[in-house]
Amino acid sequence: MPKELNRRQLIAGAAGALIAGSMGNLIRADDAKSRFKIGACDWSLGKRQQFEALELAKKIGLDGVQVSFDDIGSPTDLRSEDARREYRERAKKLGIEIASLAMGTLNEHPYASDERTEQWVLDCIDVMGKMGQKIVLLAFFGKGDINGRPELQAKVVEKLKRAAPRAEKAGVILGIESWMNAADHLRMIDAIASPAVQVWYDVANSEKMGYDIYKEIRQIGKERICQFHMKENASLLGKGRIDFKKVKQAIDDIGWNGWLIIEGATVPGTSVEACYVENQKYLRSVFQG
Fold first, then answer.
1. Residue 11 domain flag
2. Which pTM does this prediction carry?
3. What DSSP assignment string belongs to 185-199?
4. How many domains is the chain partitioned into structurally?
């Protein structure tokens, strides 16, 4: 009897350990899915400020879309309650989220020098409150580039210091995306001195500039990165110059969680849809695998 009992106990113990291990794996997988959601920019999907971006995202298998806040007076201008309602209804029906907003218009109409843009950002803050959105990307590329131009950076700081209290009251974040390195981003954010202004970190832009992206993610830190662009230039994710496993390790090290937004990462001769099906699968394998 003792030997048989020991045998039964051994079998039961082994079975219990196997079940516990399987449950542990499931819990870890669920934790990874809850930590990260995968989205894409509407412009990268070829649907800038278009309702149809949501349908395409659903078809691709994404969790959400970063929606443009750009064209004033268009049928999809989010200043309009009709446009906001249409986005909300489509998103609910499809089971797709709006991950964040983006002001790509600032590349053409510089925030530092175009007098109209200060009000546009305030408009966006108000719209975010009405939509339940928490993050908007403020773009500083093209005509709006401020990298290496301290006089323009100072003007941006001045304007964002005025906008920050309104953003704080609305509970939203203004994310600066630019060609600047981590130190310059942090210097501007320190000058603005508001939790409502953070860094939108684009891994491919930083890699293109020659910055150590894995070090920069750790340098900027959890509390100052609002969202990421997971991007490659002229290649699919995982097949270019960026080591996304090292990106994840850096993100894990600072304890960050949130939306990972795919941008770019297409190749000639392959449709955007096909490219993004592969991109989201790869990103999930790294961040949710």
1. no
2. 0.88
3. HHHHHHHHT-TTEEE
4. 1
